[in-house]
Every structure is written in C-alpha cells, then in structure tokens.
Amino acid sequence: MTTTTPHAAGELFAQALRYDNRPDPYPYYAQLRSEPVVCAQDGTWLVSGHREISLLLRDPRLSADRLNPLQQPVRKSLLMEDPPRHDQLRHLVVQHFVPRIMGMREHIDELVTGLLDAHTSERPGQLDVVADLAYPLPVTVICELLGVPREDESVFGGLARRLTRGLDPVNTQTEDELRELQQARAELVDYLEGLIARHGATPTDDLLSALMRDQGPEGSMDPVDLRVTLGLLMIAGHETTVNLIANGTLTLLRHPDALTRLRTDPDLATPMVEEVLRYDPPVQMSGRSTVADIDIAGVTIPKGARVRLLLAAGNRDPHRFSEPDRFVPDRRDNAHLGFGGGIHYCIGAGLARAEAQIALTALACRLRSPRLVADPPPYRENAVLRGPEHLLITFDRLSPAPVPTPVPTGSTATFGTSG
C-alpha cells in the first residue's frame, strides 16, 4: 500500500529538479525511494527503486514513446520507438556504428593528448575540464564518425546544447525556452537536410554515407528516418560523454585517494568509470508511457500513464548496493543503470566508456596537485542530462604525455552495445 501522498512525491521530485539543488539532488531521490513506485499529483508515476526500474526497462508494456503511444503514431527516433520498428532502426545503425568504433582507443588517446598538450606547462595553471577536454573530445569523435565537417562542429554543438533542454519536464521550462526549443529544432532540420544532401552528392567513408547506401534485408532508411536518426546520433553521441567526463573529474577531485590510485594503476580506470556511472550518472532519468496496466511493487500503474524512471535514484538504492552513497572506485557487482537497460541500452555506451577511461586516466597521470576553483561548480540548466557547465581547476604542473598511455585491462570488451 502506497503511503507517500501524491503531493509529497510530486514535491520531492520538484525539489530534485530545482536548479538550486542541481549540485546534489540525491537526498530527494533517497526520500522518494521510501516508495519505489509512486504517483505524483500531476499523474506522473515516479519509479526510484533499482529492482523496479530494471524490471520496467525490460517490460514490453512500457513504451519508449513518452508522448502518446496510444494515439496516431508520428515519426520518431529509435530512442522513442518500440519493436518492431525500434529493432529495425537499431539494427541498421548498429551494423555500421560498432565496426567503426572498434579499435578507436589509440585515436581517442591521441585526441586527449592533443587537447591537454595545449595547456602543458611547467608552471601553475588553470584548466576548464568541460570546455578544454570533456566537450571537444566527444564532439570531435562523433563528427568524425558521422562525417560532419570540422567547420560545422560549433554549429551542431550549439544546437545540441539548446535541444537537450527539451528533455527536461516541460513544467521546468519557461515560455522563452520552449520557443527557443522549437526554433532550434527547425534549425537542426535545415542543417541535417543540407548535410544529407552533400553526402548524397559526394559519398564518403563515414557512418552517414553508409546509412544512406545501406540496402540490407530490412531495406534502407527513408529521408525522414535518416534525418531523425542522424540528429539523435549527433546529440546523444557526445552530450552524455561530456557529463560523464566532467562528473568523473569532479568525483576524483573530491576523492583524492582514488585519484592517486588511478595515477599509479591505470587498470583501475575500467571499474572506476563504471562507478562514476553509478555514483553520479550523466543521465539522471528516462521517460516512458504505459500501453497496459502494470502491477509492480504493490501498486498498479494504469494504461496510458506517464512514467519517470529515476535512474540516478536506482543507482543509489541500498537494497541493491552496499554503502550506495560512497564512491568505491573498484566496486564489484556494479549493475548500475547509467546507460539504461533492455532493448534501449545505449548504443554508444562502449565509446563513451573508452573516452572517459582515457580522459580520466590522462588527467590523473598528467596533472600535478589539481584543485577545484569552486565546489560545487556551476551546473548546466539541464536536470535530465546533469553535469557541470564549467569545471575550473588549478594545478601546479601539467606534464607531457607518456608514450604510450596504458590501456586498461579488459578494455577490448568495453565497446559492447547491449546490457
């Protein structure tokens, strides 16, 4: 029997979404977990328990179309599609995406080295981890994979920052922000149509060209599917990783013992990144809708309901993790929800892991006595994709890169696409 009132649940969720609480929403998630599945006063069902989130991520009665799965369908990205359409689109993307990211660690290492080399100094200095590393690294990688010209990186990067605000609950956005979101969507459509037209006239050896010419058993993507899928890959292909690297750096600076361990044992990067994904995930929650009644945790979520899966809350569920509020860099049995789960498990999870492992290892090995300028740092407006807007650090010295950067043990298995 649910004991948390709809008003109380809604108020706790609203507090977790408040910008003032962006540095630490976890106390509000902890209070919500007293009822792992509860309905807020606006009718939204909030799911905060690890077990319940894990079950629902794999339940076909929960639709990825968080808008209106029971009404007339509209063209959406695979992130918001259900089988069989989701499976068809995902297969087309995966068969071209995965081969291209295999073996990219050396190139990612080179990019990280180049970005940090611009700040190498024998004297004390300052670095904005977001602007100088966490943002340009994944943007460069996804642009290279997709075939986006380097001169367009700032164009689509700016659009991505404006569009990701649209992932937050509508009631947290101002009228000006909603109008800006519509304008950004229109600009993205224009940009993508132009990019597709250029690739159609002059195909190259990149993911976009491969998707355009794919004539497999399931056929090729039509122009609208291609545009929607390309937009998803461009935005999701870097925004999550920006936060993962920034959140990881912030966590390490707050846990200097872990930073020292990573400096002396680069193999620690693999479990450490998994722990960052659990402890301070870049994606805090995910929206769904029900297409049938679902009985779970002693309550019934009715057909046609909006559902918020609070991934960050599930990641700190004491029923699943020992000492969930403690950062344990080599935590075992770390079944975190950082990349979702089920058929919608993040396609780019392996790439994001590699970028974060290499970037955090390089920072640990090359920075001497790094210190936060502000703690907490200023955060982005986004509540769903949560991470610092800037992460200024000072250091005594930024040493030259060792050659080669050690590769964490088991890294060849970090490019998986399902969980």
List keywords for this structure.
five-stranded mixed sheet, single chain, alpha+beta, 419 residues, Cytochrome p450, globular, three-stranded antiparallel sheet, 12 strands
Strand order of the largest sheet: 1-2-8-5-3
Helix content: 40-55%
Shape: globular
- CATH fold name: Cytochrome p450
Query: How many beta strands in the DSSP annotation?
Result: 12
Rounded to the nearest angstrom, the radius of gyration is 21 Å
Give the strand content: 5-15%
Order of helices and strands: HHEEHEHHEHHHHHHHHEEEEHHEEEE
Query: Any idea what the CATH architecture is?
Result: Orthogonal Bundle
Oligomer: single chain
Number of discrete domains: 1
Quick one: biggest sheet?
5 strands, mixed
Q: How many individual helices?
A: 15
Low-confidence stretches: 69-73, 409-419
Distance between the amino and carboxyl termini: 32 Å
By CATH reckoning, the class would read: Mainly Alpha
Indicate the structural class.
alpha+beta
